[in-house]
Amino acid sequence: xxxxxxxxxxxxxxxxxxxxxxxxxxxxxxxxxxxxxxxxx
Length: 41
Prior knowledge:
Layout lengths: L1 H7 L3 H8 L6 H15 L1
C-alpha cells in the first residue's frame, strides 16, 4: 500500500482511507502503471 501511496503522491493514511479493500492484482498494477505513464506526459 505504501508503494501505491507514493506512486499516487498521497500519504499512506490517505490511501488507507480511500483505497482500503482495493486488491493489488497483476491487472490492477498494470492499470496503475498505465495511468501513471499517461499523467507523466
